[in-house]
Amino acid sequence: MSSANDKALVAVIGGGAAGYFAAAACAAAAPEARVVILEGTQRPLTKVRISGGGRCNVTHDCFEPSALVGSYPRGHRELRGPFSRFQPKDTLAWFAARGVAIKAEADGRMFPTTDNSQTIIDCLQKAARDAGVETKLGAIVKAMTPKDGGFELTLRDGTLHASRVILCTGSAPSGHAFAKALGHQIVEPMPSLFTFNVKDPRIEGLAGVSFPTVALKLADQFKQNGPLLFTHWGLSGPAVLKLSAWAARELCVSNYRAELEICFTPGRTATAVQEEIWRHKLAHPRKQSSGDPAIDVPKRFWQRLVEIVVGPEPQPWADLSKDAASRLATELAAGRYAVDGKGVFKEEFVTAGGVNLKEVDFRTMESRVAPGLYFAGEVLDIDGITGGFNFQNAWTTGWIAGHAAAASLQSATN
Question: Which overall architecture, per CATH, does domain 4-191+347-413 show?
Fold first, then answer.
């Protein structure tokens, strides 16, 4: 029986969701190998810990690969094959087999029934330990060089020779630097999933006002429907976050300045809204227009629009002009707001950009440029919209990379 140090080493660089999942998969599939997670910090699985406000949005209840890929602005073509092998249904089964039950919420997001991200962290760490994975914290990899059919990894306290490497460094510059040094092209990283900075009298002082569904349009090219929230700095909510993901590159190029059109009455044109306002006027001539919304929108927002369009003085519906009704309808059905910068989405950062997807074999997640090197998670030029999709990318690519690295080792020794 060989000692642990004599075993072929698989180094998993990065102790996040993809790293733990890949390491556990590899070690379980190749028990004859030595699998080591090299995590540069003292706190692995940080994103898992903070995801979903500390509850961990594990995945999404979309179980059809062709539909699932529609939630990835970058990577949707490449992920179709991987999702046919490991998708949310398989994620649920993986966690269930380890005693973790997952529940779906009304919007499709899925969380552990404990509503505590520590449940997921404990499960991932136990799965890795049970499979024989070693975890080294504070293990900062400084360089990775091809050597003897594998890679020599330079750490602060020495070197390791790894027969296979699975790179799971997320959006960290070090991972991109390793890949680039080995010949990979890196698509310039840039933020995805962010809120919009908007300074506008129509929303000033209305932080906390929300809408269950609006329709957003940016540059006539990008459209999203969903909930919207007014904030102290501008606009947030799922509709904004999804739009930011799809338009991430274009917004970056424009330095996050753009004109956003908001329809607060999705499915109804300005003409239809104007007719609805006019009917309401005729039915309630004596009521004050500012305090009596003619359209189903939050009262505080309606009051603000009436103050801007009609004036601050109270006015009965009977005095509303057709021009004022038309302007109100336009504000509600096609209001235009200037985006002037981006905010962040709580503590959850998602990055567009990374390793060029053309240089990766998505059947195995192995590099087409540097044999023996595998990728998983956000280190790739893949990002999903909010709702558990980014974690599903980590689980899927980690599972495939781990199994492929194990199979490659076994093939080399047979």
Answer: 3-Layer(bba) Sandwich (3.50)
